[in-house]
Design brief:
- The strands form six sheets. The protein has a six-stranded antiparallel β-barrel with strand order 4-13-16-15-14-17.
- It contains seven helices and 24 strands.
- It is rod-shaped and about 130 Å long.
- The protein has helices at 7-22, 28-31, 43-46, 110-141, 147-173, 178-187, 368-381; strands at residues 38-40, 50-53, 55-59, 62-71, 76-79, 85-90, 97-98, 103-108, 193-197, 202-207, 214-215, 222-225, 229-237, 249-254, 260-269, 279-287, 298-304, 308-314, 319-321, 324-332, 335-340, 342-343, 350-355, 362-366.
- The protein is an alpha+beta fold and 382 residues long.
- Helix 4 runs antiparallel to helix 5 (147-173).
């Protein structure tokens, strides 16, 4: 006769059986974890590999930073009016080549005419006082007037001449040349037209004025730049600022000109760090005779750092895995380890090591790709 076990009793027996099994020792081979970075190869495979010891050599690292083309601030002029007035004519459009002294625009100014009138009055007064002094000298010689009267006339002449010189200087401030002032003194004719002229040979790259506009001396109406020389300006991260110094050789790649390579030297390295970007501004002067380089073009600056002794590995030894750089380090005989490393920028087939390797360790320099495939195959096979 068969009896069915109650559910509670059955559950107790199952739990006891499982507990007994868990107390048994599990074989070590069953819990061993295989390191996927290790790989062992046979002697015939080993013969296909080439190894070398990591060593220090003198290398010159190339720093690549984004850059842009800017106008040379030493070859740019922001031109405005010397007087307050209304623009009546504009002779030069945006982008036109101009020469120094060329008239860019003219304006009508009551301020200028008032200053000219004041100069004419001062000129007439000085002439009148000069004649008064001459007459006084004759009268003093004839003993008609005393010395005090002569001195009074001479004092009035000196004052009139000082006022004339002040008026003459004011005309210069308002933009009149010496020839213009001499013509005014000869004709005694007041005019209210003032010319705005270029102070530099170059190209008009900015114009902020229209006909009929009232302008002030503080307004920048035209910007003229000599684009035969431009600046290439870059921002170097502060962590790499120690790698750059004034006078170092530099290159620039211009994507807009099909990657055209430009060579030069750094003419400026800032002494301060930008607090917002945490960068140091560097500048390179570039000849631009054909004006192919346009301000605001984007570029990449390549700066050659000072030679330093660094651990290096051949580029052929590097294996990319999981978006990181690795090399195979020989442990002993046919045993190798895939090790992650931190590398710098490649130069002439070699890459400086920033971390992950020690001097003297042997790495695979040829056959690393095939060795990595062998590692992956064995990993899949378990």
């Amino acid at each position: 006769m068969k009896y069915a076990l109650p559910p509670v009793v059955f559950a107790f027996l199952v739990t006891a059986a499982l507990s007994g099994c868990s107390e048994k020792e599990v074989p070590a081979a069953a819990i061993a974890v295989v390191d996927p970075t290790l790989v062992a190869v046979q002697p015939d495979f080993l013969q296909r590999l080439k190894m070398t010891a990591v060593s220090e050599v003198e290398v010159t690292e190339t720093l690549r930073v984004p850059a842009r083309i800017e106008v040379n601030e030493q070859r740019v002029a922001r031109i405005g009016s010397a007087v307050t007035g209304r623009v009546v004519d504009i002779y030069t459009p945006l982008g036109q080549q101009v020469k120094r002294g060329e008239v860019l625009a003219t304006l009508h100014s009551t301020e200028l005419s008032a200053a000219q009138l004041a100069y004419i009055k001062a000129l007439s007064q000085a002439e009148l006082q000069r004649r008064a002094v001459e007459r006084a000298k004759l009268l003093f010689a004839a003993d008609v007037i005393g010395a005090a009267e002569l001195q009074k006339r001479e004092s009035e002449l000196a004052q009139a001449q000082a006022e004339m010189q002040a008026s003459h200087g004011q005309l210069g401030v308002l933009g009149m040349t010496e020839s213009d002032t001499a013509k005014l003194a000869a004709t005694r004719t007041v005019h209210s037209l003032s010319s705005i002229t270029s102070t530099l040979n170059g190209v008009i790259i900015e114009r902020k004025v229209t006909r009929g506009q009232v302008v002030q001396p503080a307004d920048a109406l035209f910007t003229v730049a000599d684009l035969a020389h431009v600046w290439l300006v870059a921002e170097v991260p502060e962590q790499q600022a120690a790698l750059v110094t004034k006078g170092e050789a530099a290159q620039a790649e211009i994507p807009a000109l099909n990657g055209k390579l430009i060579e030069g030297r750094l003419i400026f390295v800032a002494d301060t760090v930008s607090p917002d970007r945490r960068t140091v501004t560097v500048r390179m002067d570039v000849d631009n005779p054909k004006r192919m380089l346009k301000p605001e073009m984007l570029a990449s600056m390549l700066i050659q750092g000072a030679p330093q002794r660094r651990l290096v590995v051949p580029a052929s030894a590097v294996v990319r895995e999981d978006n990181k750089d690795h090399v195979f380090v020989q442990l002993d005989g046919g045993n190798f380890q895939l090790r992650a490393v931190v590398l710098g920028a490649e130069s002439k087939g070699y890459i400086p090591v920033q971390g992950g390797l020690r001097s003297g360790e042997r790495i695979v320099t040829e056959g690393a790709f095939h060795l990595n495939n062998e590692r992956k195959r064995k990993e899949l096979e378990g």
